[in-house]
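Slack export, channel: ligand-projects

TW: morning all. Re-posting the request from yesterday since it got buried. We need the structure predicted with the small molecule present, not the apo form. The ligand is pyridoxal-5'-phosphate; the SMILES is in the block with the sequence. No rush, but it would help planning for next week.
GE: picking it up
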Amino acid sequence: MTPSLGPSRVVPRHPVPGPHNWQGACGAPTLHCLLDQPGTLFTTSGRAAILLGLEALALSPADRVLVPSYHCPTMVSPVLALGHQVAFYPIDADGRPSLAWLEQHAPADTRVLCVAHFFGLPLDLRPVRAWCQQRGVLLLEDCAHAMFGEAPHGAVGALGDVVIASLPKFFATQDGGLLKVARPARPLPPLTPAGAKAELKSGFDTLEISARFGRLGRWRVWAEPLLGVKQLLRSSPTTAATQPTPAGFVPEGDYARIDMALSHRQPTRATVRAALHSSRERVIAQRRQHYAAMATAFAGRAGMRPLFAALPERCAPYVFPLWVDRPDPTYQLLRESGVPVSRWDWLWPGVPDMPGDHGKSWSLHVLQLHCHQDMSDQDRDWVIGSLLSHCTG
Ligand SMILES: Cc1ncc(COP(=O)(O)O)c(C=O)c1O
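GE: finished. pasting the full token output, ligand included:
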């Protein structure tokens, strides 16, 4: 008999669009946000930002980009799509690149080091920056998880030669990314406009998601008639295409595919507007509150431990990283029952075993529990309860 996890619950995996997420009066910013950094460019995704950032560095195909052993495949595919070389480096227990390894083993053809502020917890990148400077290597600071925050050296995004971020991880958008290149070796190409069809689709998708979670609020007055018309115009009833989840990671599959045209396109206006007008204080406060509640609930439990129990003061987390001793098969069951959880178990093929590396074990044991602003306290407590009943002991 297949084990089950008890009653399921519909918890949004991502921030939900709606007036509740809209900024009223714009107060003084309390935490640095990459959206305020001058010279940034909106892109269609974080991976598009990596691709465009690398293009702006004018590397040669033989040049190598080093990526952490703990990664999302979307950090690797832009590098390969441009025909560059990739290698993987080990990470220390705090998530920073192992400097000892870099000193001894970084390949001579390394031109770019990609470093991520995992989970939205800002890393002190000064030693890594110093290593890059000594070696003539460019730093790609991946802030996909860290839209907000300050590290001991200053704001996130302050040290990278290339800085990228991903909008839907923090704001109620379906897509979107951010790019800053400090000193482009070649100018960024002008991005093509999204076009009317993409704008319309993005607008309707936003409203449909909002309606699905009952968050249209005062938008209901105009949004419901619009959605009604759209429903009428649909020639045939839409059945949500259920994509079977592949059993393992396929590099040439859809998950990490790089769409060159889309990567060179502007994001839609709906995406940019939603990011710029999101209520930042709400984003920061709710995430911090969920993170703190999870850290308390999971502390001292058998079979699990918060990977970083203490939340740094000056940040907004993307997810709560929870180490689980025996993650399988519970991880799949958690996902099936609707728990908003992710795991980076799909590493790019060929990540070597490296002495002292924490990345490979994180990819198996670390569950990334979503803790975004549109999870209610009840949602969060249900997530905690699901984890406690199935992962302890
Ligand atoms: C650390 C990191 N970098 C880059 C990306 C790519 O961002 P996007 O999904 O917006 O393309 C991701 C996506 O999960 C990520 O986790």
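GE: first-pass observations. The domain at 23-181 is CATH 3.40.640.10 (Aspartate Aminotransferase; domain 2). DSSP finds twelve helices and 13 strands in the chain.
TW: perfect, thank you
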